[in-house]
């Protein structure tokens, strides 16, 4: 999503993001352990197999929270030799795993509901205490969802969003348990099974969306059309940029990287071209969320519109040719610098000489003509000009 001002996304390695995410994971682990203990003990004593099963389900959430802590620890590491782009995609991989876990949970809920529909007569009526325990678990899981999703939205963490939806699926599962127990107490045991199937479909949809989003990131899917349009407009607003092409983007964790070719005037200096590219990078990082880094390549207008300069010789080869071409011109020994312009499929050469080599304007013009004539047979050299100082 684009923004007109400085965006507020957080780097995956930022200390504030890490501390907040770690705090969420530790709170969730503690809460899940306490809930598991209560569900299993009360479910066993109260003759509720559903509550005991839900307790085992809650216990499995601890594994997911441990995965979150693992991703937080390793995903915040900076770039190194083996991971030049950092470790943020560890978070992406964990998000995919959590999404798959959600799908597995939903399938389990659906299968359990189907089995209940087929064995309604075999259900043993549980105690009322199990109903209150299920309702308490539901409230706790919903609170964990709201807490986790708030932190996820604040720091733009898809991994925490996946964890939050895992808690929401647990809350729905507890709702099913409560409905099943309540139905059993009033004689309508099959109600919870029907609701379970509906909720299972909802959870599968959420898990599939999270996994699909992570998969798209892992295969370097670019940003959306709106973001790309905002990026283009921002680049073109930088002074010195005439056009752009080959804009590419990809997501890494909660961030996005971009690279682009910008077209500038064909006679700007290397330092000015670099300055323009740095201005483009800085403006994109400041104004476009979630872009955090940009690689900018400088092109000239003719490099796009005219013939390609691919295959033209570099400076060392050109200098050897010029030394040979200018062998009969004594003033060539006074050349102080040679500037090469690769334009329109050929090379324009600019020679810098001291003013002392030419007695007057006519002599200077004549000398320039001699340099140009010496290279006229070289089809890769278009022009030779002389500048005096």
TrEMBL record:
Domain of life of the organism encoding this protein: Bacteria
GO molecular function: monoatomic cation transmembrane transporter activity
Domain Cation efflux protein transmembrane: 26-219
One GO BP: zinc ion transport
Main location: membrane
TM segment ranges: 24-45, 93-111, 117-140, 175-204
Localization per Swiss-Prot or TrEMBL: Membrane
Domain Cation efflux protein cytoplasmic: 225-300
Species whose genome carries this gene: Sulfuricaulis limicola
Name of the protein this chain belongs to: Cation transporter
């Amino acid at each position: 999503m684009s923004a007109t001002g400085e965006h507020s996304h957080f780097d995956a390695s930022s200390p504030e993001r890490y501390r907040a995410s770690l705090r969420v994971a530790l709170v969730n682990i503690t809460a899940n352990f306490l809930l598991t203990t209560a569900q299993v003990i009360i479910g066993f004593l109260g003759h509720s197999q559903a509550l005991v099963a839900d307790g085992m389900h809650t216990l499995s959430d601890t594994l997911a929270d441990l995965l979150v802590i693992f991703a937080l620890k390793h995903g915040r590491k900076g770039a190194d030799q083996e991971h030049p782009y950092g470790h943020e995609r560890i978070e992406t991989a964990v998000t995919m795993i959590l999404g798959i876990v959600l799908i597995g949970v939903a399938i389990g809920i659906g299968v359990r509901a189907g089995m209940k529909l087929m064995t309604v007569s075999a259900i043993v009526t549980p105690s009322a205490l199990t109903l209150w325990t299920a309702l308490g678990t539901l409230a706790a899981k919903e609170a964990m969802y709201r807490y986790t999703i708030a932190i996820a939205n604040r720091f733009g963490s898809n991994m925490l969003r996946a964890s939050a939806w895992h808690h929401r699926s647990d809350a729905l599962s507890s709702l099913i348990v409560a409905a099943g127990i309540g139905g059993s107490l009033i004689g309508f045991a099959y109600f919870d099974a029907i609701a379970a199937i509906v909720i299972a479909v909802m959870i599968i949809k959420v898990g599939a969306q999270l996994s699909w989003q992570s998969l798209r990131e892992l295969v370097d899917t670019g940003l959306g059309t709106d973001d790309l349009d905002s990026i283009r407009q921002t680049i073109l607003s930088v002074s010195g940029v005439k056009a752009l092409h080959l804009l590419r983007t990809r997501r890494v964790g909660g961030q996005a990287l971009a690279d682009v070719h910008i077209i500038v005037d064909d006679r700007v200096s290397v330092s000015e071209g670099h300055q323009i590219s740095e201005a483009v990078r800085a403006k994109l990082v400041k104004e476009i969320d979630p872009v955090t880094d940009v690689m900018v390549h400088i092109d000239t207008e003719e490099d796009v519109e005219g013939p390609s300069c691919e295959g033209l010789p570099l400076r060392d080869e050109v200098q050897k040719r010029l030394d040979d071409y200018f062998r009969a011109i004594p003033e060539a020994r006074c050349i102080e610098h040679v500037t090469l312009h690769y334009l329109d499929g050929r090379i324009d050469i600019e020679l810098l000489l001291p003013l002392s080599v030419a007695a007057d304007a006519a002599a200077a013009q004549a000398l320039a003509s001699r340099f140009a004539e010496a290279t006229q047979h070289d089809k890769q050299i278009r022009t030779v000009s002389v500048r005096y100082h």
